[in-house]
Structure formats: C-alpha cells, structure tokens
Specification:
two-stranded antiparallel sheet, alpha+beta, single chain, rod-shaped
Length: about 60
C-alpha cells in the first residue's frame, strides 16, 4: 500500500480543493437578438455591447 512521505499542509490541501467551488458560467438572454450570451461581454454575432456598435457584424457563411 502506498504511504505518503509527508503530511500535506493545509495550504496545499486547500489549493487542491479550490476547484471544487467552481461553478458553471452564467448566461443571459440578449434583449435584441434573443440569443444567450455572457453578461458584460459583447455579442460576437452582432458586434454590439451596451447598445453601441463595437465590431462589424459577423457575416453568415
């Protein structure tokens, strides 16, 4: 049976367990297009952010 050489410190144990608290990213429904997007991110399809045109709209291929 494998036996650890040293005791794992509280810091190392906590760093390993920190990923347990992660949760899935949230999405909101865009008011204009009706598609889901991340809050506070620009919409890559339309190029809009906060009611302003930031990028050129993506052309459908």
């Amino acid at each position: 049976m494998a036996v650890p050489r040293k005791k794992v410190s509280r810091m190392k144990r906590g760093m390993r367990r920190s990923a347990d608290a992660l949760k899935a990213p949230t999405y909101i429904e865009d008011s204009k297009s009706g598609e889901r997007r991340r809050p506070h991110h620009l919409d890559p399809k339309t190029g809009m952010y906060n009611g302003r045109q930031i990028l050129e709209p993506k052309a459908d291929a």
